[in-house]
## 1
Amino acid sequence: MACLVAAVGGSIFGYDIGISGGVTSMDPFLEKFFPVVYRKKNYKSKNNYCKYDNQGLAAFTSSLYLAGLVASIGASHVTRNYGRRASIICGGISFLIGATLNASAMNLAMLLLGRIMLGVGIGFGNQAVPLYLSEMAPAHLRGGLNMMFQLATTLGIFSANMINYGTEKIKPWGWRLSLGLAAAPALVMTIGGFFLPETPNSLIEQGSTDKGRQVLERIRGTRNVDAELQDMIEASELANSIKHPFRNILELRNRPQLVMAIFMPTFQILTGINSILFYAPVLFQSLGFGGNASLYSSVMTGAVLCLSTLVSIATVDRWGRRTLLIGGGVQMIICQITVAIILGLKFGDDKALSKGFSVLVVVVICLFVAAFGWSWGPLGWTVPSEIFPLETRSAGQSITVSVNLFFTFVIAQSFLPLLCSFKYGIFLFFSGWITIMTIFVYIFLPETKGVPIEEMILLWRKHWFWKKVMPPLQTVEEDI
């Protein structure tokens, strides 16, 4: 129950990803805030790929992620010193304020201020929720329970797509309803945060060992928690002896975790998934679909993403992380190349896709989204949240969130101009990155399923590559 309530924090992230793409394709919204794009869209831009190429419109989507990036650094301090719950509550309140500002926006400045407050909420939520889930879950269920965050994210995207499909018909204020309903998951997250128990790791880190034991006994359903509690106490003593976790994370013994904290979220975004989820209606309209058809297609991709995450939850603790990441990577490469070939041969600057090829593009994009949903989507968050020792866990999660939000910002800001410049080559661009990241996982990521968080450090010392990078054990003990 604790994991379910906490995971709602993922739905605010997903809701925003889904809602912004639909809203930016609605005529009343464009007419009020982005009249240049409105004219270009409705008076037939000569180049299909460039209809929506506007830096102001991209800034509406991307400003949130820049704010989230900055907020996630501050959230690390709150999460470490005041607990995971405090960050979850802060995130919910910020998101509520942002949703209110956006729904009542009268000008672009008010709209962007609302987006920035939403970004602060996402920075705090994405920092605290995966950590909370990893620390509450028993080792043998950690993968599945941690993926509740991604499941909530995908449900948020799907709900947003469904809401956009309905509000698009309510003119001229349907977009206000779409943006304002972001308050619903934020309210659940904020109120739920007050009722959640703090994680045992966090309580022990703050000196409340007895309370930590009580929570641990309650969530494990047994009084026999001595071994796990002792691991947490030892990790906490080490964590409290380290005053500068961000400086500590740069040391050689933490190098494998740091590399994963940077590259896993980078690669997760460079799959190209966010460009499809943010701009699904815009993308489908650029490919010649009508307004309703484009929103309908984005509802389909949202539903596929949601269902495929369930596959990951069911298999991650049985098949392992590596198998899903590599398998998903191969499927995504095939799908991206297929879409590029169809668009390259059958679609151009001024010619639309035939009905048959339009259906085929949607099917292949759905297969791509499904592959992401059972591999890099959830595991891009799960792996970094479970590999850090307690003393650098908050700092490590902050780096993961910051990198994720930075690349989300970059892709959100640059996708429309890239689509205009690269045309169908945009799909080949992303497939190249997916090839690199699949090889990266095969070579550098050890299997983490079933390994208790406190024993994760031993995994890196057994890995053929990382054991050469990490200093000898005696040196680490002397440093400590």
## 2
Amino acid sequence: MSGREGGKKKPLKAPKKEQREMDEDDVALKQKLKEQQKALQEAKAKATQKGPLTQGGIKKSGKK
């Protein structure tokens, strides 16, 4: 019945992962993904320049 045992136990620290060296295939894949991400960002920027696609809101009839 020790006062030190109560509460949350601290998790053990996980060992650090070793850095593995990247070969040519990994470098090429990373470059390809980076280019795709850049193209996607450019497409988003172009799409937002045109303005909203819908002219949303409540349509009013001419009657009162």
